[in-house]
Amino acid sequence: MRMNRILVPLDLSHCSTHVAGQAAGLASLTGAEILLLHAVKVPDGISADARIDPEGKGEPMRLVDYLVADAEPMMSPYVRICEDQRVEHMVTVVPGDATEQILAHAASWRAHLIVMGTHARKGFSRVFLGSVSEEVIRFADMPVMTIRSRRNDLCAEDSCSWCSSGGSKGQHQGWAELDG
């Protein structure tokens, strides 16, 4: 089987550039194209249609629209990685549960492989924070390659298993504004 399409879900954590680099390298070797995907999570218990005024100018907008628009520019480092490797790529930022969006996009785009990062959470951190990669591995209809996170100087946490660097500034601001 020829590998033509690689789905690369990104959580926007500091480690995501390493994942994108590994996927781009593989795509360059195999001639595959890449779909860079980020799923924006709307906080639990909050409607995606909730209105917020992120700029404080009296121009409310839907929370989900703000979160997607805020995350889109954060995909540019991953685009540069693909361009540097001369790999065909597309970028998609969508609202929704990460696992559901990864599986749905893998199926609809007919991906041959999913390459994604894992923070290698264990014990209680995995129970409380979940494991998107574990769920994707369990339910995907195609192979899944996981790239283990490596701590770097940008990390505030001492361990990748407690990483909270993912998400956009807008997600964190939106959650704070809604917490009020």
Percent of residues in β-strands: 15-25%
Radius of gyration from the alpha-carbon trace, in angstroms: 17 Å
Oligomer: single chain
Which range best describes the helical content: under 10%, 10-25%, 25-40%, 40-55%, 55-70% or over 70%?
A: 25-40%
Tell me the distance between the termini: 53 Å
The low-pLDDT segments are 122-129, 157-163, 174-180
The helix tally amounts to 7
Categorize the overall geometry. globular
The count of DSSP E runs of length 2 or more, i.e. the number of strands, is 7
Give the overall average pLDDT: 82
Largest sheet composition: 5 strands, parallel
- N-to-C series of helices and strands: EHEEEHHEHEHHEH
Short description:
The protein has helices at 16-30, 63-71, 76-84, 98-108, 123-129, 132-139, 169-179, and strands at 5-9, 33-40, 51-52, 61-62, 89-95, 113-118, 144-148. It has 180 residues and is of the alpha/beta class. Helix 1 runs parallel beside helix 3, helix 2 runs antiparallel to helix 7 and helix 4 (98-108) packs parallel to helix 6 (132-139).
